[in-house]
Amino acid sequence: MAVVDTAPLPATQPMPWPAATGLAIFDLDRTMVRGSSLAYLGRALAEARLLGRAELTRHLVRNLGFALRGAAPGTAERLQRMLLEALAGREQAPLVEVARTVGPVVAARAYPAARWLLDRHRAAADRCVLLSASPQELVEAVAQALGFDAAVGTVAEVVHGRYTGLLAGPFCHGEGKLARLRDAVGPVGLATAVAYADAASDAPLLRACGSPVAVNPDARLRSLACTSGWPVLRLH
After folding, report:
1. pLDDT digits 0-9 by tens, 14-32
2. What is the CATH number of the domain that holds 132?
3. Structural domain count of the chain
4. If you average pLDDT over residues 35-43, what whole number do you get?
5. 202 is catalytic
């Protein structure tokens, strides 16, 4: 296991692992950006009074963010259902507008070294995908602000402009990240792709890619990276 502790990286420095040949996949929270994107979205939604009680919003965001960090899949799915229920019956358009304002704020929290990695992949003409369990509306806004080619998140079902409280596809977490990736970008060759992620729940994605990189890994992912010989990247 190679551990790379990043300082500011010069533009000419090569990748310390095999380069992608066409596809680079980045997780969002604690991989591309510091902290939880959901925390920013939750505060903005509470301020806009789009989820009713601000206390409920903060509780959902805090616990969902923790679950996505490394809790058991059942816990993450339960908390995701709570968030969907809070949205049920509400119009999508106001949430999209809030997400568009939050996207650049979250993007500004990107690690400098993560931006460096993204720039290197873009310079190599790789297709760069931002992949996250966060709501699709937010992931799209962050991806646009950072210059990604595609954004893949969790899609909530919308009927007649309102959220139904259900998902319109798999939850983009664990095995669901692979399913959402294929749904969103079509058949992709992962054998030569690079994937960057921080949590053990991302193991299915990392195992499926030819060049997995553990970024600021939690304890379980660090252990897996050690036994699998994956590089570990510490971003500051």
Report:
1. 565 556 678 999 999 999 9
2. 3.40.50.1000
3. 1
4. 83
5. no
